[in-house]
């Protein structure tokens, strides 16, 4: 098992190294061929190195090097987004060095070539990876409630993982210790703390790969600070959401981005408004009460994507193949353009650019009945995009949505906000990100037995 793990890692490192070298070489070609400055001498290689390092860091932050588990589409989008950003920064640098506007065509050609090469390379490497390394065989050990919803999700990744056994922890530690040795990995799902700790220690002792589905308290602890008061490790969890300086700079950033966004998107919003009005002569905007930090209510604005009588029978989330969505609305939802008017909500301070998705009060109450800790998401302002929006889906269950948003709150940084804003462009190309709930659902609740 150890040797196979090293082979997996070696293939990933080699594949990523080839990508990195290709990026550096292709930039070097256009630098020496089109933008070479004789005054630089050896500094030319420093510039090429800086470009390669910058692109490496951007791609890494987008998980573009995670060949072992990321989907092909997500890998291609991560590399593509990083390459576009790298090309833009490189061109700005070239103009600054030259003290003039330079021909942008070589950079554009380089970006296109890099995207094409890396897309084909990622697809090839993924095929090679699957050929030499079959899906990991896993055993799931669960607590009181069967992990039905989780199994549905993990079975969608049979290219990487194969669930071979599902075992309840009540069958005893002796049975568990005997069975886990036969598998390449162990999934610990919703176990009582003491039992989970015992299994985790056993797996650590025997070097068994372990996947732990975190509890709410695990995520709270994840954002703790290390303190060295005495010779005993101490974790400090402040539990206050964002600090005053973070809120100040976040608000300043929101004002700038939303202001620029409103100006740039104005022509697009005008076209959308005309299209909605022309289709059924109904109202252009859809107003709705939502919740933000501290449970404060505000009126959110969106472009109307459904029929005028869409909620004649009460509040409910959009469903898969929902016949209430208009043809114009279908396009808007797929491209997430229906949310553009929320830039005004951000500008006036009701929302932030990044934060938990704002929920309707009536749906929020239903979620709280199943997940009492759901109000933890209200530690920060609601956001136009966010951790759950980028890494989850429209129909992500409340407990998973809470865990994703709580991860954002506990690990908040300016760098994380920037990363999530950039990754938001990636979800436009992922159809499942806007997938509605099942036809028999009004909310995203699926398993009432799921606990945090």
Major sheet attributes:
4 strands, parallel
The helix count comes to: 15
Relative strand content:
5-15%
Q: How far is the first residue's CA from the last residue's CA?
A: 33 Å
Poorly predicted regions? none
Average pLDDT figure: 88
- Percent helix among the residues? 40-55%
Question: What's the arrangement of secondary structure elements?
Answer:
Blueprint: H1 2-35, H2 43-61, H3 72-98, H4 105-132, E1 136-142, H5 148-154, E2 161-168, H6 173-180, E3 185-189, H7 193-205, E4 210-212, H8 216-222, E5 225-227, E6 234-236, H9 244-280, E7 285-291, E8 297-303, H10 327-335, H11 342-348, E9 352-354, H12 361-370, E10 383-385, H13 387-391, H14 398-410, H15 414-427
Parallel strand pairs: 1-2, 1-3, 3-4, 9-10
Antiparallel strand pairs: 5-6, 7-8
């Amino acid at each position: 098992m150890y040797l196979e793990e090293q082979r997996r890692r070696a293939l990933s490192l080699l594949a990523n190294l080839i990508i990195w070298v290709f990026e550096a070489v292709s930039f070097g070609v256009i630098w020496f061929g089109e933008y070479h400055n004789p005054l630089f001498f050896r500094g030319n290689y420093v510039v090429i190195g800086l470009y390669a390092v910058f692109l490496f860091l951007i791609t890494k932050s987008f998980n573009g090097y995670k060949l072992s588990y990321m989907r092909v589409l997500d890998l291609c989008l991560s590399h593509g987004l990083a390459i576009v950003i790298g090309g833009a920064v490189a061109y700005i640098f070239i103009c600054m060095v030259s003290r003039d506007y330079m021909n942008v065509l070589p950079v554009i050609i380089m970006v296109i070539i890099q995207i094409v090469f890396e897309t084909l390379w990622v697809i090839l490497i993924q095929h090679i990876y699957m050929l030499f390394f079959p899906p990991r065989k896993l055993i799931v050990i669960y607590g009181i409630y069967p992990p039905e919803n989780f199994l549905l999700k993990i079975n969608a990744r049979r290219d990487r993982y194969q669930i071979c056994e599902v075992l309840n922890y009540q069958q005893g530690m002796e049975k568990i210790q005997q069975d886990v040795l036969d598998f390449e990995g162990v999934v610990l799902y919703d176990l009582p703390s003491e039992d989970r700790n015992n299994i985790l220690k056993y797996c650590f002792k025997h070097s068994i790969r372990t996947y732990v589905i975190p509890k709410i308290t695990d995520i709270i602890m994840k954002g703790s600070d290390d303190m060295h008061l005495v010779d005993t490790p101490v974790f400090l969890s402040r539990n206050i959401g964002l600090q005053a300086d973070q809120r100040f700079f976040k608000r300043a950033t929101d004002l700038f981005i939303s202001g620029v966004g409103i100006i740039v998107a104005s022509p697009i919003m005008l076209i959308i408004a005309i299209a909605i009005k022309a289709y059924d002569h109904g109202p252009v905007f859809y107003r709705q009460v939502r919740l933000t930090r501290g449970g404060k209510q505000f009126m959110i604005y969106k472009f109307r994507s459904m029929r005028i009588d869409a909620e004649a029978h009460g509040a409910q989330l959009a469903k898969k193949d929902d016949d209430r969505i208009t043809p114009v609305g279908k396009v808007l939802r797929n491209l997430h353009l229906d949310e553009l008017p929320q830039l005004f909500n951000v500008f006036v301070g009701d929302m932030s650019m990044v934060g938990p998705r704002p929920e309707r009060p009536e749906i929020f109450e239903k979620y709280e009945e199943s997940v009492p800790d759901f109000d933890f998401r209200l530690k920060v302002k609601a956001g136009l995009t966010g951790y759950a929006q980028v890494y989850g889906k429209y129909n992500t269950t409340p407990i998973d949505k809470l865990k994703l948003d709580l991860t954002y709150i506990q690990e908040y940084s300016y760098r994380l906000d920037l990363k999530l804003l950039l990754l938001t462009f990636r979800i436009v190309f992922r159809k499942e990100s806007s997938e509605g709930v099942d036809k028999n659902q009004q909310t995203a609740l699926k398993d009432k037995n799921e606990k945090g």
